[in-house]
Amino acid sequence: MDDEFYRIKRLPPYVIAEVNGMRAAARAAGKDIIDLGMGNPDLPPPQHVIDKLCEVAKKPDAHGYSQSKGIPGLRRAQANYYGNRFGVELDPETEVVVTMGSKEGLASLATAITAPGDVVLAPNPSYPIHTFGFIIAGATIRSVPTTPDEHYWRSLDKAMHFTVPRPSVLVVNYPSNPTAEVVDLAFYERLVAWAKENKVWILSDLAYSELYYDGNPTPSIMQVAGAKDVAVEFTSLSKTYSMAGWRMGFAVGNRKLIAAMTRVKSYLDYGAFTPIQAAACAALNGPQDIVEKNRQLYHKRRDVMVEAFGRAGWDIPPPPASMFAWAPLPPAVKDMGSLEFSKQLLTHAEVAVAPGVGYGEDGEGYVRIAMVENEQRLRQAARNVKRYFQSLGINSSAA
Ligand SMILES: Cc1ncc(COP(=O)(O)O)c(C=O)c1O
Q1: Is residue 282 part of a domain?
Q2: pLDDT tens across 262-284, in order?
Q3: Which ligand 1 atom sits closest to the C-alpha of 247?
Q4: End-to-end CA distance of the chain, in Å?
Q5: Which protein residue has the closest C-alpha to ligand 1 atom 2?
Q6: What is the span of the domain harbouring residue 14?
Q7: How much is the pLDDT for 396?
Q8: Does residue 237 fall inside a structural domain?
Q9: Is 1 contained in some domain?
């Protein structure tokens, strides 16, 4: 019997899982690990959203199969969000689909539109589903940079010129996970023009739409005139409303892509539990003060983290958006590599971070620090790191 499964052979061991395993073992041994590894929000969702979930769950008729593409009210709520936030009009029937988190949405779309032999352009470093969603579908990845500078544009052109068959899809993700880099609307304008010229679909992941810190609201690619001709965009309730475990996300935009994805989903799932969808409506339609409150809270954490780690001897550029800092390894430990450094931090400082190499080879030299513990714990993490640096004989200020 052949147990060399085609898709499984294409999935390498998950690097980040190694650190996660060590973290779990340390915790089981009673250690108080400060977990800045996973982007798992530590904040509760708004109370009225939880209340709506409970209220609808009590209805006897709310427990059957739901609608795979999402209940109409939720698709309307998402269309209203795009209208209010970005001034973008969407048809809830044909241009919006509800997904079980944006991760599932990306994977379903990858399944719908790619086949073995297709080439997909994806950033490196990137959030794993941006590559592995397509690898699972059998496609080949050609990496392009994450940093949106002129080198990025040259890489895109080079990729189109030298790749056979020509790439059919480009994935973009700003604010970026893991690098926290951002783009402005002019970037998206150029990207839409480029995609039209090169006949490439664009998949934009906007999971961090509401977590921006320097006063500039994150733009959507859908704000570009004609974006719907070539693009879809994914958003999520996971971070905006701290609802990561609820598995609620959306794809909006190009009708053909939305239809393809909806079709695949109709074979795979019956949609999220109806009370969750009803509660997601409450999140999008209800009071939005929590969004601003959470933004301020992450902003404060960011400032505390950058300042406290800086004093420990680790210079971390303040992320302009997202819930992550993309931190270069301090020069004195650079040779260790990001995986070993993450393990050492866990063992000796009791702080969990995600090794940059887990996001692609170009993530080497960095670790990703998630701001998912409170300010006091972030300060404690910085003190632990300082002690670890000192134990290595590194003067904090020279680390
Ligand atoms: C860039 C990015 N996209 C998608 C996701 C997945 O989000 P969801 O919970 O909506 O599946 C994450 C989660 O961390 C993310 O960082």
Answers
A1: yes
A2: 999 999 999 999 999 999 999 99
A3: 9
A4: 54
A5: 207
A6: 6-44+289-392
A7: 62
A8: yes
A9: no
